[in-house]
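Handoff note, outgoing to incoming analyst
You'll be picking up this chain. Sequence as last confirmed:
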Amino acid sequence: MKPRIPSSIGKAIQMALQLDLFSDFLVPDKLRPTSPGAPDSPGAAKREIPVMDKPGQTGAVPQPPSTYVNTSNKRRILIQDYLLEYDLQRSKRRSIGFLISEDGLRITAPRWVTIADIETAIQEKQAWILRKLTERRERTQRQLEPSMHWRDGAKLPYLGGEITLRIAPASVSGTHFEADRAELVISLPVDAGEQQLKDRVQAWLQQEAKRIFNERLPVFAEKLNVRYQSMSLSSASTRWGSCTSQGRIRLNWRLIHFSPMIIDYVVAHELAHLREMNHSPRFWATVQSVFPDFETARHTLRQHASSDLPAF
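Most recent structure output, in case you need it:
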């Protein structure tokens, strides 16, 4: 006789399976759902997705930030001519853990592991560490850049590219998209304010998101041989999507800013939960069966934060 599943666990299984928006840096490695060879997992070095060098820097090693505050837990190690500073925390865990946060590199290690062993582990993971520190620094720099100015000629991210916002003063409001010129034309009364413009643009983007999601969901549902009950838009600040065991799909309308590949990945991810309501290896194998390049898409999605998108 199979053991009875506690009611608390049964309820948890019924909860929505959600796709984190910014899980790359907010969730510790030991808590993050992983797949075999996941690109952002330090333990999956053999299957890491290579990062393109910047123009003019082919083969260059990215320089990590050097603005960390020195504390009693801070240590330094020389890696490829760079003096890398890290925060060492001792714990009862059984292995060495790596975490990139706003404060830089934090390493958690068992009390019995020697400094020599820790530094050997750092050397082995140096490519991952330097890449993640560089990405964190670039993300911080983007946050310091001026936000979008809502005016005629402004650029909006749309389906992985850019469209130009055109404002046409008119007595009657209207919105239309000139696909051949990649221009979104918003007609507004001359006395309209900035918020009215934002509301019109957001309404159009949400309409486009709903249209595209409803086109892609049946495609992947058929491939997975599953049936979903409904789809609704989400405005969550920390989730790209969710799925309940009843087949209710929620997709973040902000996905409209990303390429069709990213949209397809999230759609496939959520529908795969109707086969596997978890993030087990079987779940990732299910995603891969209909979206073979899911690791690249997931890695790309994790590089973006809310600060990268227009503020409405």
